[in-house]
Amino acid sequence: MNELQDSFKKVIEAQALFTTSILINIFDKRYLVNLSIDYTKNKNNIIFGKIDFLMGFPSVNEEDELVKILFNRASNAILITDKDHVIIKANEQFLKNSGYKPNEPIGKQANILKSGQYSPEFYKKLWHIVDKEKIWAGEILVKNKHGEIYAHDVKIQRIELSQNNHFYIAESKKLDYSTQILANNPLDLRLSQNCLLSKETFIEKMEEKFTSLSSEETLAVASIQYYPVTKSQ
Q1: Model confidence over 40-92: pLDDT tens digits?
Q2: pTM here?
Q3: Other C-beta atoms within 10 Å of 171: how many?
Q4: Measured between alpha carbons, how far is 26 from 49 in angstroms, rounded to an integer?
Q5: Dihedral of alpha carbons 183, 170, 99, 109, sign
Q6: Which CATH architecture has domain 63-174?
């Protein structure tokens, strides 16, 4: 409605023909229309206009429902916190990765995911970057509900809704290699205070170790996938 009022104001100010395409609400439906307004002044100060319906759009309620479905069906884990880092929303993939039940993490501080592998200074720098640049991305270690540590590739954004209010949205993908193999391995690989080794660096280190092996040493690499067993009733 505000957009429609603004269109009429422009017509009155310019005193000329004005055309635009806008979304209008009719009861619980929305439509994209082509609006033409002609400033024709007569004794009754009448403004003439025409609305051509172009196409229908989902209602506000249908759009909200669609956004909720997309949020929960996203392939990446999504976590939303308020400005104090209190969790207010988590999608199904986040629950799957972290082991929490629906609504269980809501109201808790996001630091429940801290792995214990990083210093307070690391997190201080991370959030300083997020608040200053509005985004931070990288690979870090996190802890699930059961205390198991895993790596994920995460992007954290600061979203401003008003001058005095903002939120944080973290979108992450669980990585497919074991952090325990990286942390406790025969290749002398160590996790730094700031990041996790990438796959490329891990492979490079293995190749270096392989070329330095003596004739009496053997290097074995295994890829292990865990499939939970469901007990039959």
Answers
A1: 655 566 667 778 888 887 777 888 888 999 999 999 999 999 999 999 999 99
A2: 0.59
A3: 19
A4: 17
A5: positive
A6: 2-Layer Sandwich (3.30)
